[in-house]
Structures are given as structure tokens and as C-alpha cells.
Design brief:
By secondary structure, this protein is of the alpha+beta class. It has a domain at 55-75 and 144-222. The chain has helices at residues 64-68, 154-157, 162-185, 195-217, and strands at residues 27-29, 32-56, 78-103, 113-115, 121-124, 219-231, 237-246, 250-252, 260-268, 286-300, 303-321, 332-337, 342-348. The longest helix is centred in the middle third of the chain and has 24 residues, at 162-185.
């Protein structure tokens, strides 16, 4: 049920100090003018980090076992998904059942109230915070992949069969390995003059070997992605299936039996004592949340993907700042957590 609470007149200021006060959001209710704000409720955001892998077999993949003793190389093109990790966090969203109205008295100015764009309360009598400048992410350019054919010798390229080319390429790889071992042991005919030059030579040999190995092992193109689902924790959960994962299809819905289930257990830690409703509570004042806490466990194949504690407003209560705090003799500054609606700090000037 939508609640409209008209706060006591004592929270309104008449001092000239607040003549320039900015009201973030204003509405009228009948003949009254004031500020409407909303307390948040908790949603649990689950981020699923996956990698889409596209495998392209190498030109010499069928000879990988014969010449390089690589027995797990496939000769078929393949696409599959890897599950890298799952994280959970709590986010605040407006709770339409916890909306409040701050009334302005005639010929006075209401206290400075800052709200988020969604109408969630952030502060009272605190200077409006400016949005921090967003830093541009520096994108590191992807390293150019070397073409293995650039390292093939004339003898390899002139070979009259694929099998012969594979054999000669494998010998070239073994030669590279021998050269690297000679450098590391200090037994090379032409040893580098210093450590930096040695480092460059070893790096060049590694790049050549990796490029030529691709002709046997193939190429894996990887694309990292993040899928997000949101859950509303209105109750405790015991091994609830929240999604499914398939190596072939990736992230699937909870009801799609083509994937393996991912389970979530949510338990109310009962960190907040819920008072018994013995009499009607005085709802005068600024409302704020006292969020509870919940333990969250996410499992897949009995493996822990995430375990931790998160704030959950639905497991807490709503309290009120006494109107007596806001009087003309002093200025009270109040800061709230817009994600939970919890009281963060109260200062007096």
C-alpha cells in the first residue's frame, strides 16, 4: 500500500541560510507542496562470467600426434562455452510501497534534500554532490597474431605433400627448442652480449614456436561475456535453481533442461530484531531503512561459485528520525546509503 507521510512542521526551516535551497523533486498533494522520496528494496544481481570459444583446427592437425606427440588435438571445428565465475551483489531499486512525502510549510523553505534519479533519498542538508568525472578506459590493442607461414622455410614450402610439410615443420619446431635451450644454458655459438638482448632473443624464439605450433594445434578464438540476472529476495531460498549452464549452449534459463543447474541458497541472518506490533507506531519523521543481512551460497556441481553476506532491506525494518532533530536552532546533516536506504551519518553544525 502506498504510504504518504506528512512530516511535522518542525522539520521545516525559516532561516535565510536556506533561501537558495534546491529541491531535487517536487510534487503537489492537494494544496500542499513538498518533496516525495522513496526507500529502496533489495534486488540480488548475479553476474555470470563466461567465455565463448571458437576452435579452428590447424592445417597439420592430423599429424600432431605422429610428429609432436600431441594426442588431444582435434581435427574438427568446434564452438563451446566456458564458465569462468559467478558473483552476487545487492542493488537498491525503488520500493513503490515505501514512498514518503515531506510537506513544505507556507512562507518557509524545506531542508535541502538530495535524491537519486530514481527518487531514492541520499542526504538532507548536505551540499549537492556533483557527479564524478568518468575516466575513459584505456583499451589495450590486441596483439597481432603472427602468421605461421611466415616462418616456414623454402624446403617446407616446396614439399610435395602435406605429410612431408608437417614432418619438416615439426623438425623446425624442435630446432627452435634446441636453440632456446642452448641460450638458456649459455652454450649457444653466438651468445647475447647482455641480459636484455637474451630476453629479446628468447621472446622471438617463443613467438616463432607458438606460431608454428598453431599449424598442428589449431586456433582458439575467445570472446569473454557477462550475463546478468536479478532476483528479488522476499523470502529465504534453499537450493533454488536460478539458471543453467551448457558447454554447448552457454547460459540458459532456470527451466531449460538442456543445461546443468546452478543453485542458490539464501538465508536470513536475522541481524535485525523485528518488533512486535503491540500498538500503532508513530510514523512522524524522516523514514529510513535498517536493512537485514543474508548469507548467499551459489553452487554448481557441488562446487562453490560464490559465498558471502549481502544486505537485504526486506529482512530489516523501517525507522524514523525524530522531527525534533530538525529545528531552527541548529542544522542537522544526514547522509543515507541510496542502495539500502540505511542511515550512514548524522552531523550537527
Amino acid at each position: 500500500m502506498r504510504k504518504l507521510i506528512v512530516l511535522l512542521v518542525s522539520i521545516l526551516f525559516t532561516t535565510a541560510t536556506y533561501a537558495q535551497t534546491e529541491i531535487i523533486q517536487g510534487v503537489t498533494r492537494g494544496k500542499d507542496f513538498g518533496v516525495v522520496y522513496t526507500l529502496p528494496k533489495t534486488e540480488i544481481k548475479v553476474d555470470i562470467k563466461v567465455t565463448k570459444v571458437t576452435y579452428l583446427p590447424g592445417e597439420f592437425s592430423r599429424y600432431a600426434d605422429r610428429y609432436l606427440r600431441l594426442s588431444d588435438v582435434s581435427g574438427e571445428e568446434e564452438q563451446y562455452w566456458e564458465l569462468n565465475g559467478i558473483t552476487a551483489s545487492s542493488v537498491g531499486v525503488p520500493d513503490n510501497e515505501n514512498t514518503y512525502f515531506v510537506k513544505m510549510k507556507d512562507k518557509t523553505v524545506a531542508p535541502l534534500m538530495e535524491l537519486t534519479e530514481e527518487g531514492l533519498i541520499k542526504s538532507i542538508n548536505v551540499p549537492i554532490s556533483s557527479k564524478p568525472a568518468t575516466k575513459k578506459e584505456q583499451v589495450t590493442p590486441a596483439k597481432k597474431r603472427l602468421d605461421p607461414k611466415d616462418f616456414l622455410t623454402e624446403e617446407i614450402l616446396m614439399a610435395n605433400s602435406t605429410a612431408k610439410m608437417a614432418e619438416l615443420t615439426a623438425k623446425e619446431i624442435y630446432n627452435i627448442r634446441e636453440s632456446r635451450n642452448a641460450l638458456v644454458r649459455g652454450q649457444a655459438d653466438n651468445m647475447p652480449k647482455d641480459g636484455e638482448q637474451l630476453k629479446l632473443m628468447l621472446s622471438s624464439l617463443d613467438e616463432q614456436e607458438s606460431a608454428m605450433l598453431e599449424l598442428f594445434t589449431g586456433i582458439k578464438n575467445k570472446e569473454e561475456k557477462v550475463f546478468t540476472i536479478t532476483l528479488v529476495p522476499n523470502r529465504e531460498w534453499d537450493n533454488e535453481v536460478i539458471l543453467r549452464f551448457s558447454r554447448k549452449l552457454g547460459v540458459l534459463g532456470a527451466n531449460d533442461l538442456a543445461g546443468e543447474p546452478v543453485y542458490l541458497t539464501l538465508k536470513n541472518l536475522r541481524t535485525v530484531t523485528i518488533p512486535e506490533e503491540t500498538k500503532k507506531k508513530d510514523v512522524s519523521g524522516i523514514a529510513y531503512n535498517v536493512p537485514g543481512r543474508a548469507s548467499v551460497l551459489i553452487l554448481k556441481d557441488k562446487n562453490k561459485m560464490f559465498e558471502g553476506e549481502l544486505p537485504v532491506t526486506q529482512f530489516g525494518i523501517v525507522e524514523y528520525l525524530a522531527p525534533a532533530l530538525f529545528n531552527k536552532n541548529s542544522t542537522i546533516k544526514v547522509t543515507f546509503n541510496p542502495e539500502t536506504g540505511a542511515l550512514v551519518k548524522v552531523d550537527r553544525e
